[in-house]
Amino acid sequence: MYWAACQFPFRSLTPSPSIRYSRCSSPRYHRLDPISDLINQDSRRYLQLRLPDVEKPSFLAIASPPSQSASTGAFEFLVKKVAGSTAELLCGLKKGDVVELTQAMGNGFNIDKIDPPEDYPTVLIFATGSGISPIRSLIESGFGADKRSDVGLYFGARNLRRMAYQDRFKDWESSGVKIVPVLSQPDDSWTGESGYVQAAFARAKQIHSPKGTGAVICGQIQMTEKGGSRHGSGEGTRNRADICMRNQEGV
């Protein structure tokens, strides 16, 4: 996860009476429930979580779209289990363990900037590592991808073992999002894009109409800065937990 604790105010925490976590197709995926009282129907996309006997709360990006969380009463997160980390403690919890959660927070995605779809037929989405977590929420919430002529996701990871949500790629593509996996350290059998996400996009040499192009960027700071400049906007973002959504004119 990209932690951003220094950039957000502390909020009051509410105990969640039980926890359930499921590994889905990878040990990175975890779900907590029930949390119906904490769900906002809008696009606020992160919350604070504090584990038992841990003084400092952590920030987690919410991977599940708001509609799913509202219907299932559960939040889904994408976490990477690292020794000594909050994620390791989270993965060690059992059903019935109590954690403290805030309500969902954040401004989320300003979809209005790329609406209506006919005015913004091209949307470029860039994500690296666990930055794919809020991107999953965006794609599965829906932003009219099937009504646009060119929607592409450049998704970077070290290798296929580190690339989350591969089991969802088919569904994402059926919704109108073309997936371009980019591996920085692939094995010898890999025939797809390699290197860094921004370099893969530059190699594609796609020419887009600045007036009708939007960009969504979430990931490591080098990618957000260089990716932003590639799209005609000289500004990147220094907040790795934020999503930059802007069209090519910088509106």
From TrEMBL:
InterPro entries: FNR_nucleotide-bd (IPR039261), OxRdtase_FAD/NAD-bd (IPR001433). Pfam families: NAD_binding_1 (PF00175). Residues 127-225 form the Oxidoreductase FAD/NAD(P)-binding domain. GO terms for molecular function: oxidoreductase activity. Residues 225-251 are annotated as: Disordered. Gene3D superfamilies: Nucleotide-binding domain of ferredoxin-NADP reductase (FNR) module (3.40.50.80). This is PKIWI502 protein.
